[in-house]
Specification:
The structure holds 2 protein chains of 2 kinds.
Chain A lengths: L9 H16 L5 H18 L14 H4 L12 H9 L10 E6 L2 E2 L9 E4 L8 H8 L8 H9 L4 E5 L9 E6 L7 E10 L4 E9 L7 E10 L4 E9 L5 E10 L4 E8 L4 E10 L5 E10 L4 E10 L5 E10 L4 E10 L7 E10 L5 E10 L5 E9 L3 H9 L4 H17 L5 H16 L3
Parallel strand pairs in A: 1-5, 4-6, 5-7, 6-8, 7-9, 8-10, 9-11, 10-12, 11-13, 12-14, 13-15, 14-16, 15-17, 16-18, 17-19
Antiparallel strand pairs in A: 1-2, 3-4
Chain B lengths: L3 E10 L2 E11 L4 E5 L6 H9 L5 E9 L2 E2 L5 H7 L1 E4 L6 E5 H15 L7 H14 L4 H5 L1 E2 L5 H15 L3 E5 L7 H14 L5 E6 L4 H4 L4 E6 L2 E6 L2 H9 L2 H4 L4
Parallel strand pairs in B: 3-10, 3-11, 6-9, 9-10
Antiparallel strand pairs in B: 1-2, 1-4, 4-5, 7-8, 11-12
The chains are: A alpha/beta, B alpha/beta.
Chain lengths: 439, 251
Amino acid sequence: MAELTVIRSAAEEAILSRFPDFNATQSSWGGAPVARQRQQAFETLKAKGLPTRRVEDWKYTDLRAFMRDLPPIADAPSRAEVEAAAKQTTPLDLANAYRVLFVNGRDVSTGKTEGFGWYRLANGDALPPAVTRALERERAYADNAAVALNTAFMNDVTILHVPAGTALERPLHLIFRNTGNAPQASFTRVLVVVEAGASVTLVETHDGPAGVAYQSNTLVEIDAGDGARIDHIRSNNAGNAALALSTLGAQVGRDARLSSFSMNTGGAMSRHQIFVAFNGKGSELALQGASLLRGRQHADTTMEIDHVVGHCIGRELFKSVLDNESRAVFQGKIIVRPDAQKTDGKMASHALLLSEEAEADHKPELEIFADDVVCGHGATAGALDDELLFYLKARGIPQKEAEALMIEAFIGETVESVNDETLREALMAQTREWLASRS
Amino acid sequence: MSLLEVKNLHVEIDGKKILNGLDLTVEKGQVHAIMGPNGSGKSTLSYVLAGKDEYDVTEGDILFDGESVLGMEPDERAAKGLFLAFQYPIEIPGVATMTFLRTAVNAQRKARGEDELSTPEFMKKVRDTAGKLEINQEMLKRAVNVGFSGGEKKRNEILQMAMLEPRLAVLDETDSGLDIDALKIVSDGVNRLRSPERSFVVITHYQRLLDYIVPDVVHVLSRGRIVRTGGKELALELEEKGYAQYVGEAA
């Protein structure tokens, strides 16, 4: 058989050519495990390249086509940049939150911690045993292209540790901020370990300058111990020219509860991936999200819920509102392993199309290997209901306002899952702001 | 000037003629009842007055306060004081009744160049009005018409009417699906709003409603036209003799 010549894209060439230099600058932080992971990630990228639509997981989001090039990897920000970045607000600011600020992929947070531990792997901090165990876990998603990129080019791992039995009153707020007028690539990794019986609210926001084709890639991993309670609320407000890849990887212990809500309005192209593994019985997962898109925005939400053990409940509800020529992709896979009897999984995705040119792609997948389970999924796509609009207009509410009311109600159904009232209101305010700026 | 003048109205939907030269004039302060057999065009008339867009007006005009409303959107007509109580009120998931009422009241005020109602003013008015219609606070917090019984939906229509204070209210079979108690509550709600400045067009299949909302004028609609007009006694005659004699007319 003839030798095939692989034609690499500019981005793929850049990944291969820049990795050795990047690798050389990383000294030996994290020791042999990190060096090994980094090398494996690089080998994966080298062998597979960036995924195209011919790769099933990327069927509707051709990363190779979207990621034309790899801009320079961001350097550590200057003091002035950090100071300026620290002053900016986010839609989900809470007065009492403990802020962990990342600027262009670097953890620049300072300040004392109360009730939880904050570590940086690159500092060689001594780590609690639960953190070490979490770091050493096998990751089913290690070969995923976005994750492999993150692993190959990560400059640190920020670790937040909530000790056993601690009910953390102050929310932790991860702020992923990109700055600068020139396109840069940033890679950020965070591990949140919530030990047995502990609880925490974790807020996550992403933002960056408009009009700059920067690339951000974040991986947030959550390790939920037995009986842990975690409320995770994120908002993507990446700049309108940005390519934003984000991944949530969660390991859930026994009798734990993890909820994650994601609001998505930013980026020219975004992909939010969620990988959850149920490792202990009796746990609950609630994943919800809303995307509000316009122009030519492309937003992909892809998740894989792995019921390794039985007796767990999973609920997923995602909605998208699509104006102009925007496109939303939803891929949701529920895996029920042979031993995962009594699994209860329900997944739904709904798209509201506000224009003839908008597109929604839903791909729900169930892979069930156990015989005593309840699993289902549903997907819809449609326009605003004319009968409803007429009713509202007949009461004197003008077209645009009537549409806004209906869209707000549509999104509201997902937002109401958020426990914190201030955050719920902030997410609805973000929705209203998006509606107010509709042309 | 008459408040409402419908002149030689011809209406089609999907190429099918429903109204064939309907004439109707309603003066300020009057209550007109429109009765007629099923399929005579009663609901079409109500939708065309409110401005539903799948109905094509092929001939004639609708003047409200001397001004043609045919080129107006439903919300513009509403702001001018036209109200339609729906035969089948729509459920609006996710929109609280209170929010809906407030949005509607203020949108109309804004369109008329009036100031928005303050929160205390609005709340007081809703509470007073809802109370008289036996609509409790819990219902006001629920999404519009979602999970409401048939009677509750109709009372909610009357609540909206009372809050919006229209100059002309068209009630489309508001009595359908109501038991006698609910019918009384709804009728009382309508009667409280009767005034020399406000007119009503009450569309109904049965005479029963007109025992409670006593009309000044009764019309019989058949095959898309008014075929007979009389006083309130006409309703009683229809109740006794039925619509059989009108079904064949105006063909």
